[in-house]
Amino acid sequence: MEEKKVKLRIYGMTCDDCVRTISSSLKKQPGVLDVKISLQEGTGEVKIEPAGLSPEGILKNQVFSKGSHYKATLVE
Amino acid sequence: MSEEIKHFDLVILGHGAAAFSAGIKASELSSGEMSIAMIGTGPLGGTCVNVGCVPSKYLLEASHRVFRPKHPKMEGIYETNVVHDFSAVMKGLRSYVKQARESKYVDVMRSYENVALYEGLARFTDRKTVEISDPKGKKIGKVSGSNILIATGSRPSIPNIDGLNDAGFLTSDTIWGIDELPSSIAIVGGGAIGLEIGQALLHFGSSVTVIEALDSLLPQTEPEIGSAIRALLEKEGMKFYMKARVSSVHKSSKNKIVEVITHKGRERVEVDEILVATGRLPNTDTLNLDAAGIKTDPRGQVLTERSMKTTSPGIYAAGDCVSKRLFLETLAAREGVIAVSNMFGEDLRIDYDSSTWAVFTYPQIAGVGMTENEFSRKNGSCSCRTFPLSNLTKASIIGETEGLIKITVDPKDNRVVGMHIMAPNATDIITEGAYAVQNGYKINDIIATSHIFPSMSEGIKNAAQSFIRDLSMMSCCME
Ligand SMILES: Cc1cc2nc3c(=O)[nH]c(=O)nc-3n(C[C@H](O)[C@H](O)[C@H](O)COP(=O)(O)OP(=O)(O)OC[C@H]3O[C@@H](n4cnc5c(N)ncnc54)[C@H](O)[C@@H]3O)c2cc1C
Predict the structure, then answer these.
(1) Which of B5, B134, B257, B459 is deepest in the core (most CB within 10 A)?
(2) How far apart are CA B385 and CA B259, in angstroms?
(3) How far is A1 from chain B (nearest CA, A)?
(4) Phi-psi region for residue B414, left (φ > 0), alpha (ψ -120 to 50) or beta?
(5) Rounded Cα gap, residues B448 and B251, in angstroms
(6) How far, in Å, is the centroid of ligand 1 from the Cα of B154?
């Protein structure tokens, strides 16, 4: 199975709870294989299965949707 | 120059309308956490506030206040000569521009600590990196961005006319610095900018000659409106050379001589000053776009999708540097917001079809959607009605009957696909057309909507009613 690492810049995280909320929401997304988030750097690394999920698709995760104060952009 | 490359979440090239709206939206979406580099040359705020919308509308408004009391339109109201001082008006204009720039751009930017302003020219070295240099070409630094927005705008294009540089000329970048009203001026180019500045100077008392390459004015609007505005400006004293070209320019002892070629042959126009208003060029030629894999159209405007994505991943473009048909402050700002929202994973698209545009002559001209010709070229047939302001009660009370409202609908379902207006307040009432086009409203939706009597906006309802009945057989306020 092909894997791809996607780097995210994540905005709005203030504590470990934020990290847990974002990680668990991302892990539930079909196509996501693994998630590592750094609160200190405001970044995340998401391992995805490119056949099932595009990097931009990660940004559409519920946790980053309109109304949520967590937001993310892609870092190449 | 230090070789250190400073990294940002977002690098914005340009500091005009598109750049500001993008920078502010990005700051809002990230709660001020997104690190942003904004690189620009010239005064903060770019074209609109410094040399575009703001000074041109100021000059036009001032000029109408001088002209209109001299040309009253109601019985018993007599000509009044408005005492004025052109150089003081220009001083007022510059001071207003300065204040608008300070309050809407400089002060606003101070509240965004996440935005680092760089004064200089930006140039790509690769897909992620931008080099900044000062106006003399000295390198100042390098920045890189996870996302990049190109918002470098446009500048006046100067045609290659023999003798023009030696004789000297004004453009929409430089005219705001004058203190003395030119006694006569030749305006090369009869588009929106040429007509707006031309009418303003005419209203102050200049003798204005417009030289236009096409055979009609404002081809983006309905031909009836192009002819009506030309007739009105001619009545006010503006001279036109249509289907004409300037072959050369030279200086006489006091004046500038413009040699014009028309279908009738050669003519000489002797003037005090020349304004070149022959369109604008995108500021993309020095960006080294190839290094970033960004494609442009043959004019050098950046090709984007409606999502404002360029041909290079992670790089977006917004504003006057983009390949499109309408070049407006409002669109630049909207495109900036769309580009940034899409960086955050949204799926927004720019809607050019229901974008309103305007020319701020008096009367004003405004439009949205397709003209009759555009719709029938695309679809084979269309249905349209033209409602002259001479039929509108409010317009005839105030004597402002030179104008019209034209609505184009899709004959299949009577959906409004275009509205074009020439009226004193066309820029205000066109918004009804924008709602109609954007939301697919039909003629009956307009008729069934309450409009004030007597008002200019009632003209839109009348124009809609003229699809269903002969208006000469209709009484006042008929539903
Ligand atoms: C006379 C006139 C009247 C107008 N009237 C109206 C009106 O009434 N209503 C309306 O909606 N629109 C009007 N417009 C159009 C409007 O001004 C523009 O559509 C709008 O300002 C475009 O904004 P922008 O951000 O794309 O570009 P700009 O505002 O031009 O900003 C681009 C900035 O980028 C800078 N730049 C260029 N190259 C580089 C580089 N390599 N590196 C860094 N920076 C660079 C430029 O110096 C500039 O500051 C008018 C324009 C003119 C000229």
Answers:
(1) B459
(2) 41
(3) 25
(4) left
(5) 61
(6) 6
Distance from CA of B348 to the nearest CA of A (A): 13
d(CA B332, ligand 1 centre) in Å = 8
The backbone torsions φ and ψ at residue B248, rounded to the nearest 5 degrees and listed phi first, read -160, 165
**ipTM entry:** 0.95
Other Cβ atoms less than 10 A from the Cβ of B317: the count is: 32
B363-473 fold: Enolase-like; domain 1 (3.30.390)
Q: Which residues contact B265 (CB under 8 A, 6 or more apart)?
A: none
Closest Cβ–Cβ partner in A59, A69, A74 for B31: A69
Hey, what are B369's tokens? Answer: 């959607």
* B307-346: pLDDT as tens digits: 999 999 999 999 999 999 999 999 999 999 999 999 999 9
**Using the beta-carbon criterion (under 8 Å), do A9 and B313 form an inter-chain contact?**
no
**CATH number of the structural domain B5-156+281-343:** 3.50.50.60
Asked if residues B91 and B81 have their Cβ atoms less than 8 Å apart, the reply is no
Query: Best interface-test mutation with B: which of A40, A58, A73, A76 has the largest number of B CBs within 10 A?
Result: A73
Residue closest via CA to ligand 1's atom 44 equals B40
CA of B15 to the centre of ligand 1 (A): 9
Domain interval for residue A63: 7-45+54-74
- Superfamily name with CATH number, domain B164-278: FAD/NAD(P)-binding domain (3.50.50.60)
Q: Where are the domains of chain B?
A: 5-156+281-343, 164-278, 363-473
